[in-house]
C-alpha cells in the first residue's frame, strides 16, 4: 500500500493555549477507511483541520502524497482532499444547489462543459438532481449534507474527510447517507478519513482506528473488534 498522508512529530496549540495536539505521528494508506476516535474535545476536528491546512502547525510536518503541506502549495493540496464539515451550513452557502456543487470544480479551473458534467453526475449520485435550481436553505439538514458531499464528489479528490458524518441525522437519513458513501465513495477506492465517537460506526465501517485523548494519540491499530476492548468502553459511546 502507498502512503497517502503522513504526520511527523506534529504539534499545534490554539493562540489562547487552552488546547493543542502533541507529538502526532501516523500514516494513512491509499484505499482504506480511517476513524479518528475519541470523546468530544479530544482533538478530532482539530486534527482534520490541520490536514486541510485550515490551522497552521507549530512544529513537525504533514505530507500529502509525499508533498509537504505549506502555505505555498495549499491550493494544490486542497484539490486532493475533500472535507465535509459536521454542520453543512458551514459549507453550503450559494444561491442554488447547482452553484454550490459547481464551486469546487470552478475553482479548479475546469471548463464550463466539464463543470456541468461533474455537477449533474454528483447530484445524480446523491439523488438531488431535481433540486439543482433550489436554494440550499430550502433543504432539510440531511439534504444539505448530501449537497456538501456532492460538492466533494464533483471535485473527485483522492481523500474524502468527514467530520462526524452521521451526527444530527435521524435513522433513515443515517442509513441513506451510509449507503451513499458505500456505493459512491468507498467502492471507488477512495481513502476515507472520518472523525467519530460512534462506537458502532467505527466497529463496522473503519479499517483503522486512531484514538485521541487530550490532544495525544493513545492507540492506532485495526478497527475491527473494537467493541471488545477496554479502550472502546472508556472512550466511545455505547454500542
What's a concise summary of this model?
With 239 residues, the chain is of the alpha/beta class. It is built from 8 helices and 10 strands.
- Tell me the number of helical segments per DSSP (H or I, 4 or more residues long): 8
Would you tell me the overall average pLDDT? 86
Proportion of beta-strand residues = 25-35%
- Give a short account of the largest sheet: 6 strands, mixed
Low-confidence stretches: none
What gap, in angstroms, lies between the N and C termini? 31 Å
Q: What class, by secondary structure content?
A: alpha/beta
CATH T-level topology: Rossmann fold
CATH architecture: 3-Layer(aba) Sandwich
**CATH superfamily membership:** P-loop containing nucleotide triphosphate hydrolases
- Count of domains: 1
Question: Which CATH class?
Answer: Alpha Beta
Structure report:
This protein has 239 residues and is α/β, with parallel strands linked by helices. It has one domain (32-41, 74-235): Rossmann fold. The protein is 33% helix and 26% strand. The chain contains 8 helices and 10 strands. Strands 6-7-8-3-9-10 form a 6-stranded mixed β-sheet, sandwiched between helices. α3 crosses α4 (112-125), α3 runs parallel beside α5 and α4 (112-125) packs across α5. It is globular, with a radius of gyration of 18 Å. The mean pLDDT is 86.
Amino acid at each position: 500500500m502507498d502512503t497517502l498522508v503522513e504526520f511527523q512529530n506534529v504539534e499545534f496549540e490554539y493562540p489562547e493555549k487552552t488546547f493543542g495536539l502533541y507529538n502526532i505521528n501516523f500514516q494513512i494508506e491509499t484505499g482504506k477507511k480511517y476513524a479518528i476516535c475519541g470523546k468530544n474535545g479530544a482533538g478530532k476536528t482539530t486534527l482534520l483541520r490541520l490536514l486541510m491546512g485550515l490551522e497552521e502547525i507549530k512544529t513537525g510536518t504533514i505530507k500529502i502524497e509525499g508533498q509537504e503541506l505549506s502555505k505555498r502549495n495549499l491550493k494544490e493540496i486542497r484539490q486532493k482532499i475533500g472535507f465535509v464539515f459536521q454542520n453543512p451550513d458551514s459549507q453550503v452557502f450559494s444561491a442554488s444547489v447547482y452553484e454550490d456543487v459547481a464551486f469546487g470544480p470552478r475553482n479548479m479551473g475546469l471548463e464550463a462543459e466539464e463543470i456541468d458534467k461533474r455537477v449533474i453526475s454528483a447530484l445524480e449520485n446523491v439523488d438531488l438532481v431535481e433540486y439543482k435550481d433550489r436554494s440550499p436553505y430550502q433543504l432539510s439538514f440531511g439534504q444539505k449534507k448530501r449537497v456538501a458531499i456532492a460538492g466533494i464528489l464533483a471535485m473527485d479528490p483522492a481523500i474524502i474527510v468527514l467530520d462526524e458524518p452521521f451526527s444530527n441525522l435521524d435513522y433513515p437519513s443515517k442509513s441513506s447517507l451510509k449507503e451513499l458513501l458505500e456505493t459512491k465513495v468507498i467502492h471507488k477506492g477512495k481513502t476515507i478519513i472520518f472523525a467519530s465517537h460512534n462506537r458502532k460506526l467505527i466497529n463496522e465501517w473503519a479499517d483503522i482506528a486512531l484514538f485521541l485523548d487530550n490532544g495525544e494519540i493513545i492507540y492506532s491499530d485495526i478497527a475491527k473488534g473494537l467493541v471488545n476492548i477496554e479502550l472502546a468502553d472508556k472512550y466511545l459511546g455505547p454500542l
